[in-house]
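Box 3.1 A note on notation
Throughout this textbook, protein chains are presented in two layers. The first layer is the amino acid sequence; the second is a token string describing backbone geometry. Keep the layers aligned when reading.
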Amino acid sequence: MRPDAMEEFGSGIQQAVLAGGSASGRLAEDVRWGLSQPRKQLHSQYLYDSLGSRLFEAICALPEYRVTQAEQKLLDRYSNLIVSDLEGPVTLVELGPGSGEKLAQLIEPLLRNNIGVNVELVDISEAALDLATRTLTRFPSVPVFCHEAVYLDGLQRSIKRRHDAGSLLVAFLGSSLGNFAPSSAHTFLSNIQTVLRAGDRFLLGLDLVKPEQELTLAYDDPLGVTAAFNRNILVRLNRELAADFDLEWFGHRVIWNFASSSIEMYLESLCEQKVSIPGADCQIRFKEGEYIWTESSYKYTTSQIVSAGMESGFATRGQWVDEEVKFAVTAFEVL
């Protein structure tokens, strides 16, 4: 795989995600487009249906995948500092909230200081929104609103609901920005900065570059949970588009791309085969050994994170690093 291939991955689909629109309404079109490319691909957003979201939560609990534990440890240690100068009422927006536990760590110090909090959750997965909402019921005084939407679309809806006074903090945690190719990551951060106003905060969690063996093990765990998560996208296409993928004929493959500092996740066709996808009005032929690209996860250095924020119009307020796991949480502000 040549190094610049990462920039090509899902470019048409990814730009549509950045621009907004219905994820469910685009599924057939995106599948037809992605599987007709010379390098077959399915966009990673489609990994997160109801089952996929639950499988991802299971991945986050695996000892090989230490991203979630590292991020939670940093938030536990520094949440007071992160929210210390926010003025109430505070609107907390989380893009891709997962279980909601990390957002809870930001809410707790605010409530301890008697600062009012409103929460806005944004995710394309209804299951993820439900899970996060249940987690946040431990705070009965905190209103929680859900937006089943792509990130920028949901953020714009959330901002319309903010108080005229008070602070706004947008959290994008779990190294989700790592799933964007560098050019798309820049576009995404710039779009967020554009819709915020002076004084608004942006909290970013990103996985850092680390040894290859550690990275590949995190994405190809011995229990096969990540493999099940990856193959579940085919289950979704069988269910929603009446496809006839046979899961036994697709293997889970993980590759570390040193040149682009990214983990690449694939589904490999284990034989020559033809798959019918009536809901997308197409039939796709696979050669033995041919890959479907499902996800790329870019790893950063701490200085690259700061530079990415500055190049998108943010000022850096602080950065906290788990040196053992190699994970960073960085706070930015709009000037």
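The CA atoms of residues 50 and 77 lie 32 Å apart. Residues 5-64+217-297 form one domain.
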